[in-house]
């Protein structure tokens, strides 16, 4: 069997390695090329700090600088350093040469800095509001919008979104409207994967799942719904909702809806953490009585009984699964102290 023509050389393997001070000229060229993609005045490449000695700069800050190298060429970088907020790492920059984007290199670099950040509680970053592809990338990997937009303090005056995600253990966060809207891609994936293993959930396409979550985000923005998301070791792996869209004279109660956990993360404590956080959120809003429904014999019933919910009744054949099988529905309630 003949091999490839001798004149065609295979591309060198891409290596992720710690950055060195002598990488400075190539780092500056990579950053300048990236900034040239957006119109307007170009600010100094100061996000990485001292570009004359980048490795020394990050070593002094107890941070990390990683380079993606292909042979002699530097084709990507990522840098991080401790934030002023205790337990938080800030992603200073993540760059991949434009012609190599979309092949997984950005994720390799992000994984490198997340691995280097083990032991910290969260990772935060700022993303140019014009960088749609970068926003989609971070949202896909569990980073959500938080806080107001800022103006970069350089001559570019670029507007930037803040993003963050928890890194350690099981953490649950109540999402505001901006965070909920930025979560629709990842939560859409969770809904689709959960539906494939849960007969009660309808099978949805990715587009349909995202459309559903956009509706949830609108309810969060309108104060009609609480959305809690849960991370396990940096992975956005579950969510639960509290419907508080009740008449004014019924504002003592709320309904638990759509507890979703990625199949690979079930049984590890995330569902319990989400339900505990939901009860706290309900109390904070003056809701003293919660209700939920669960398919008989399903995991939701088991969770409700394990967390001391009271059964209020059963209706035979109340629901039909996405596969067309009729099932009994159980109704539970819980009074909050």
UniProtKB/TrEMBL annotation:
InterPro entries: Acyl_CoA_acyltransferase, Bact_Acetyltransf, GNAT_dom. Coiled coil: none annotated. Keywords: Acyltransferase, Transferase. SUPFAM superfamilies: Acyl-CoA N-acyltransferases (Nat). Residues 14-168, 188-334 form the N-acetyltransferase domain. Residues 1-21 are annotated as: Disordered. GO terms for molecular function: acyltransferase activity, transferring groups other than amino-acyl groups. The keyword Acyltransferase applies. It holds the Pfam family Acetyltransf_1. PANTHER family: AMINOALKYLPHOSPHONATE N-ACETYLTRANSFERASE-RELATED-RELATED. This is GNAT family N-acetyltransferase. It comes from Acidicaldus sp.
């Amino acid at each position: 069997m003949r091999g490839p023509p001798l004149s065609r050389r295979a591309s060198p393997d891409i290596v992720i390695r710690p950055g060195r001070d002598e990488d400075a000229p190539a780092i500056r060229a990579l950053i300048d090329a990236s900034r040239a993609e957006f119109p307007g005045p170009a600010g100094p490449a100061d996000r990485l700090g001292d570009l004359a000695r980048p490795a020394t700069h990050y070593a002094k800050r107890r941070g990390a600088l990683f380079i993606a190298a292909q042979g002699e060429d530097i084709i990507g970088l990522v840098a991080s350093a401790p934030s002023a907020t205790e337990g938080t790492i800030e992603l200073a920059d993540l760059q991949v040469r434009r012609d190599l984007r979309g092949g997984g290199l950005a994720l390799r670099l992000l994984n490198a800095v997340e691995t280097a950040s083990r032991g910290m509680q969260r990772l935060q970053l700022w993303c140019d509001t014009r960088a749609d592809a970068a926003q989609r990338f971070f949202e896909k990997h569990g980073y959500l919008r938080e806080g107001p937009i800022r103006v970069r303090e350089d001559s570019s005056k670029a507007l930037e979104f803040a993003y963050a995600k928890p890194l350690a253990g099981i953490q649950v966060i109540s999402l505001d409207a901006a965070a909920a809207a930025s979560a629709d891609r990842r939560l859409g994936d969770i809904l689709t994967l959960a539906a494939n293993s849960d007969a009660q959930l309808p099978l949805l396409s990715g587009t349909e799942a995202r459309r559903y979550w956009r509706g949830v985000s609108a309810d969060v923005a309108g104060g009609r719904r609480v959305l809690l998301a849960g991370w396990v070791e940096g992975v956005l792996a579950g969510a639960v909702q509290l419907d508080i869209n009740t008449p004014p004279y019924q504002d003592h109660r709320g309904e638990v809806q759509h507890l979703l956990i990625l199949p690979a993360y079930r049984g590890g404590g995330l569902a319990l953490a989400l339900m505990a956080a939901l009860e706290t959120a309900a109390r904070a809003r003056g809701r003293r009585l919660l209700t939920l429904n669960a398919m008989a014999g399903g995991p939701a019933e088991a969770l409700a009984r394990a967390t001391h919910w009271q059964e209020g009744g059963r209706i035979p054949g109340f629901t039909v699964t996405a596969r067309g099988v009729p099932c009994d529905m159980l109704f539970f309630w819980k009074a909050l102290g």
